[in-house]
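Researcher: Go.
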Amino acid sequence: MSDWPLTRTFRSSSGEVRWDSLGDPGRDPVVLLHGTPFSSYVWRAVARALARRHHVFVWDMPGYGASEMFSGQDVSLAAQGRVFTELLAHWELAEPRVVAHDFGGAVSLRAHLLHGARYRSLTLVDPVALAPWGSPFFELVGRHSEVFGQLPPALHRALVREYVGSASSPGLHPAVLDRLVVPWLGDPGQAAFYRQISQADQRHTDEVQDRYGEITVPTLVCWGEDDTWIPLDKGHELVARIPGARLETVPGAGHLVQEDAPAHLTAALVDFLG
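Model: Structure:
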């Protein structure tokens, strides 16, 4: 879309990935990973700010945002971890700084611990990383994704708007909410929305959570103090598992810290990445 164009395409093992980069290619690379049910659009303000000092890479995971969506597509955490590893090789980034939100946190952790992806540093923002995770709504939709996929378009749109909006503590600007919802509407968006929920499986974090003690790169964990999707207690638990990790809490922010407190998050990232 014209307000956040991703102009380049990579053919991954799970479909076409739309991506782009901002800033001087000669600068220190930073890769941003989005969560679910979002896209790289949530990083737009932070990415543009970081591009003053870094070469910033943004991408929409397969099945999300502007990237390819299709029936039978594997959009699981396992698949996304492999795709991220493929992208790093395609970009020829041997050791970038990685910043990952929500579901993207699990993707970055799996790529690092299971696929050998190397990072110069790791920032995790309200990540999906520790069991248990998944709200009652998430579990309900996961069990009945085919039924939800047949909802009339107007009801589906209302459901997605309410769900996405609940990730923010102060509330999203209507135009931002519209932009985050649009990829999930119509064909193939509606089916893709329920597909990604149905494939979300806690076993993909269970496989790695006992290995967080192996992480040796500098690690910052940022957490919205008002996150109702994943409580702040999980941030304290995660920091305790990663050697030398530091926790930065963000007052007044919910799960979507990038939207609720972009200035605070950017300042924390500039300080850490610098």
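Model: The beta strands are 8-12, 15-22, 29-33, 55-59, 97-101, 121-125, 219-224, 246-250.
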